[in-house]
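Appendix B. One record, verbatim.
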Amino acid sequence: MNQEQIGKTILEIRKKNNMTQKDLADRLNVTAQAVSKWENGRGLPDIEILQKISKEFNIDLDTLLNGTVSKKTHHKYFIIIIVLLLIILSILLIMILNPKDFNFSDIKSNNDKFEVSGVAAYSKDKNSIYISDIEYKDKENKEEYVGMECILYESHDSVEEKVSQCGDMQETTNPKTLKELLEQTEFKVENFTCPTNIKESNLYISINLKEKSGTITTYKIPLELTGSCN
């Protein structure tokens, strides 16, 4: 292993993620002095720390040890593309096996803090919902949370029904930002029953976040079915 080169790689990772040495140290549960030594080639992280860097920043461990950054910069977008392709294939399969008059609409939100991407497929007899991406717009907020649950609701006549849920409030020893937590969040509802036409349904997502102090923060994201994907 090239100690100096690995140090330069860690420095590059930190700068690409707009982190100070203290930010990275806190993320890895080490001291800022340790990070400084690594970056200056005067020390090496132990294998557990290297594995944590690999996991936290989506970098192949072998590549990290070889001293060149091969960060999966487009990792999230690659997953989104794959998910969308699977959604399209699922919809086509539904239409082939059950050739009814299906319509499609984009699922969006006008919430100023979140951007939502998804699609709804619906016919006279069946409704399906696919939400592939929920993005938190406030890039400056670095608050970390130890638990999150993300719930899709449909409300009508003062009644709220849970449609689907991702995650739970079980505490983790590896706190993450809201942006990081949402990267693993998606909804797939194959047979959604609603009391009215799906385009008139009152759908929303509730995000409940647990802080280290135990405080619960909640965001409510109203959804809209807009336009047509036909």
